[in-house]
Amino acid sequence: MQDQKINILAIESSCDDTAAAVLCNGKILSNIVATQAIHQQYGGVVPELASRAHQQNIVPVIHQALAMANIDKKDVSAIAFTRGPGLMGSLLVGTSFAKSLSMGLNIPLIEVNHMQAHILAHFIEEDDFEKPEFPFLAMTISGGHTQIVKVSDYFAMEVIGETIDDAVGEAFDKSAKILGLPYPGGPLIDKYAQEGDPIAFKFPRPKVDGLNFSFSGFKTSVLYFVQRESKKDPEFVEKNLKDICASIQYSIIGILIDKLKKAVKETGINQVAIAGGVSANSGIRQALKNAEKTWGWKCYVPKFEYTTDNAAMIGIAGYHKYLKKDFADFSVTAQSRYKF
Ligand code: KG4
Ligand code: ZN
Q1: What is Dmax (Cα atoms) for the chain?
Q2: How far is the CA of 307 from the centre of ligand 1 (A)?
Q3: How many domains does one find in the chain?
């Protein structure tokens, strides 16, 4: 098996990014993402428009991924695709395409859970990158999810805490929308926060039992705060944007770190990885560096290109399933709520 070249063509279409990647023995040969700009004007992802855009993008994106990898279709060993969780209309595009391609090329089909793939992005083969050792804790923080997962092996994962309402990415994006920032606002909050005072304003921390999270009240507290202050001074947001962003970010990171601390204490595992779109945030990255120094944790932060949705992470998950010969049959269907 070792001398054999295993080329995985991976497809990701769970939300608003159409992505394809080719990996050879876990190393990336190409990683293409077509981001759908159309949603910006609506302030959020419009599912119907997302699936239409996936239909338009999927063929050129796959062509580009194969061309950049310099791989011919006949040299692809298996097709990996995102089965879920995600938007049904979006998932159906990738799922149907992957099934047809696998049937047409007569090669194995591999279904991948998007959230597991975010975590497995840490195992992409790269020379300058240290991989976590099992067991470790993974905090998946994205636009659709907020989970703490105990990872005992590639596919032995247990969710030990999760949000009971909004995801942390939504808390960022909805707060940004309240401040009049365009979608997705998370990266912009991060950008302004870097020049602001994190303790200029205080937002309440939600009280949720155990290792679960809640962010819906947080967004409401930002809304009431902005409405109240803007009544006193209509230019309040404009004048204080950097401080507001820094304070929002500081509060959100505080909520995440509190729960991680609790998870480390309860499990006795102090190897911590983050994954998902929000793991690009400079505040959480810094907080983990501090945790290494202060509490002796060993932390793993993904490279920026593997934080937001991409197909390389689907490819690495697919590669490890390929090694186990864990293949799907053609009856496999997309699952918008796909738990593991
Ligand atoms: O993983 P992802 O690309 O898609 C989902 O599966 O949801 O995550 C997207 C989320 C968005 O909410 C976006 O605002 C957030 O990740 N995000 C950030 C940053 N970069 C992306 N949030 C805060 N700071 C960032 N730098
Ligand atoms: Zn994602």
Answers
A1: 70
A2: 8
A3: 2
- Distances in whole angstroms, Cα of residue 106 to Cα of each of 18, 77, 227, 323: 24, 10, 59, 18
**Mutate which of 40, 112, 140, 278 for ligand 1 pocket (most atoms within 8 A of beta carbon):** 278
**Residues 80 and 32 placed together within one structural domain of the fold:** yes
Residues 257, 190 share a domain: yes
Dihedral sign, Cα of residue 277, residue 281, residue 286, residue 291? negative
How far does residue 121's CA lie from ligand 2's centre (Å)?
Answer: 11
Q: Are 222 and 178 in contact (CB under 8 A)?
A: yes
What is the rounded distance in angstroms from the CA atom of residue 29 to the CA atom of residue 169? Answer: 29
Q: Is 278 in the pocket of ligand 1 (CB under 6 A)?
A: yes
- Which atom of ligand 1 lies closest to the CA of 144? 7
Q: Please work out whether the CB of residue 276 comes within 6 Å of at least one atom of ligand 1.
A: yes
Range of the domain at 115: 7-124+307-323
Residue 83 lies in a domain: yes
pLDDT digits (tens, 9 = 90+) for 98-148: 999 999 999 999 999 999 999 999 999 998 889 999 999 999 999 989 999
107 C-alpha to center of ligand 1: Å?
Answer: 34
Provide the percentage of residues in the chain whose pLDDT is more than 90: 89
Residues 119 and 145 grouped into a single domain: no
DSSP-derived pairing of the beta strands 146-153 and 136-141: antiparallel
Q: In what order do the strands lie in the sheet with 136-141?
A: 156-162, 146-153, 136-141, 271-275, 298-300
Q: Is 85 in the pocket of ligand 1 (CB under 6 A)?
A: no
Does residue 238 form part of some domain?
A: yes
